[in-house]
Amino acid sequence: MKTIIVGLGNPILGDDGVGWKVVEEITCQLPPDVSAGIECLSFGGIGLMEHLIGYDRAIIVDACISPEEDLGSIIISKLDDLPNYSAFHTTSAHDTSLQNAIELGRRMGAHVPEEVIVIGIAIQAIREFGEELSPKVAECVPQAAHIALKLLERI
């Protein structure tokens, strides 16, 4: 099963870059006999869907603002189980949610993943520039990487 691991976020917006940090950790720990696509991206929607074409499964690591979760909590979910916020998508009037983008890709005949797992890491609202993670979020990076690697092993 061909799998891609994607770290999402912006590495110069503090905790929003946690997806990239987790993917860096995964890259260091990935056994040589395990094959997976690995990317760090700063966009979602249709652009992200295009990077998933050709894979059977995707593991996406991203920061999430979740008031009910403690800072640095790790939330694991299938993309299909998450709310589809396409009506509230604000980054561009010409883009859509990942759920809608994957469905569009399927309808156009693209080989997009049947299974998309999201590893979300709870952060607070992003208010300043910086390349460092807050201590609580940085603490969860090894655990999130471990979870992603375990998911990668599961075929």
Provide an overview of this structure.
There is one protein chain. By secondary structure, this protein is an alpha/beta fold. The chain has a single domain (3-153), classed as HybD-like (Rossmann fold). It is 31% helix and 22% strand. The chain is built from 5 helices and 5 strands; from the N terminus they run E-H-E-H-E-E-H-E-H-H. It has helices at residues 18-29, 45-52, 98-107, 135-139, 141-153, and strands at 3-8, 37-41, 57-65, 74-78, 115-123. The chain has a 5-stranded mixed beta sheet, with helices on one face. The model has no long low-confidence stretch (mean pLDDT 89).
* CATH H-level superfamily title: HybD-like
Unreliable runs: none
Quote the distance from N terminus to C terminus.
Answer: 7 Å
Q: In CATH's first tier, which class applies?
A: Alpha Beta
- What's the rounded overall pLDDT mean? 89
Task: Tally the structural domains.
Answer: 1
Number of strands: 5
Strand content: 15-25%
CATH topology: Rossmann fold
Shape: globular
Q: Can you summarize the main beta sheet?
A: 5 strands, mixed
User: Whole-number radius of gyration?
Assistant: 15 Å
What are the secondary-structure elements, in order, as H or E? EHEHEEHEHH
